[in-house]
Amino acid sequence: MLQYLVMTWNATTQILTVQYYSPGVIDMLCLNLPNGGIAHIYNKDIFKVFSEFSTSSSSSANKVFKQTVRDALKVGQAVSVETSLLTGFEEKKGTGWFGGEKEGLRRVEERYVTHWTPLKDQEGRIKWVVLTIAPKP
Questions:
Q1: On the CB side of 137, how many CA atoms lie within 13 Å of its CA?
Q2: Per-residue pLDDT tens for 95-109?
Q3: At 66, which helix (H) or strand (E)?
Q4: Short-list 19, 15, 85, CA closest to 47
């Protein structure tokens, strides 16, 4: 299912700040909190949000991901980039202390395609970016 976020673009700092997101983003990124609330992503840098949902082993891939997006936006071009996010769950089974069964859920990495579309103001400067996210087939 396709999800989207709308962000403001600050060309000076190259920060993309989340201003709006489709309701499905909450489920996709597992933003539901145990107390019934939702994790805060409004007014947060999208790359910080993604870093919370990516594997720690891919920090160099995260740098390439960010740089690819920022380089395209600097020149006003749309860009599509694949990434992995910790969005899925699978049942965890194993043995606990004293040979007893230990069950639960663990997060799993899933592949996504992201598409970043810059939107320009009347002076031709990028002010907004629409990010669409879809599971990789």
A1: 0
A2: 556 655 556 666 677
A3: helix 59-74
A4: 15
As a whole number of angstroms, the distance between CA 20 and CA 130 comes to: 10
Integer Cα distance of 26 and 3 in angstroms: 10
DSSP state of 44: S
**DSSP annotation of 15:** E
Contacts of residue 67, Cβ cutoff 8 Å, sequence gap at least 6: none
- Residues forming a β-bridge with 113: 82, 134
Distance, in Å, from the CA atom of 72 to the CA atom of 131, rounded to the nearest integer, reads 13
Q: Are 29 and 87 in contact (CB under 8 A)?
A: yes
DSSP string, 92-134: EEEE-GGG-EEEEEEEEEEEEEEEEEEEE-TTS-EEEEEEEEE
DSSP-assigned beta bridge partners for residue 76: none
Tokens (6 digits) for 74: 């600097």
pLDDT digits (tens, 9 = 90+) for 12-69: 999 999 999 998 888 887 777 778 788 889 999 999 888 876 554 456 667 888 999 9
According to DSSP, the residues that pair with 105 across neighbouring strands are 91
